Amino acid sequence: MTLNIDKAIITEAKEYAKTHKVSLSRLIERYLASLTKKEKNKIEITPLVKSLSGVIELDKDYDYRKDYADYLTEKYK
C-alpha cells in the first residue's frame, strides 16, 4: 500500500509517535481503526424513541440549564 502524505505532516506525526512511544504505523493503524469503529457503533434509534421525538414542545427561551441547577439546589439543600 502506498500513501501520499505531506512531508511536514509525516515529520510531525513521527515526533508525536516518538513522544508517545508508539510506531508511526501503529499510530495510523489505531487512528484508522477508531474511524471504522465509530461507523460500526452507530446507535440505531428505535421506533419507540422516534415516535416520542418532538412530543414535548418548549418555549424558545426555555433555559434547561437553569431548571436543572434549580433542581439540584433543591435536592441538595
**How can the largest sheet be summarized?**
none
Instruction: Tell me what portion of residues adopts beta-strand conformation.
Output: under 5%
Low-confidence stretches at least 5 residues in length (pLDDT < 50)? none
Task: Specify the number of helices.
Answer: 4
Shape: elongated
What's the mean pLDDT score?
Answer: 87
End-to-end gap? 63 Å
Structural class, from secondary structure content? Answer: mainly alpha
Secondary structure: number of strands: 0
Helix content: 55-70%
Radius of gyration: 23 Å
Helix and strand succession? HHHH
Question: What's this entry about, in short?
Answer:
With 77 residues, the protein is an all-alpha fold.
Describe the structure.
By secondary structure, the chain is an all-alpha fold. The protein has a domain at 7-40. Helix content is 62%, strand content 0%. It is built from four helices and no strands. The chain has helices at 7-19, 24-40, 47-52, 64-75. The longest helix is centred in the middle third of the chain and has 17 residues, at 24-40. The radius of gyration is 23 Å and the shape is elongated.
Structure keywords:
single chain; 77 residues; mainly alpha; 62% helix; 0% strand; elongated
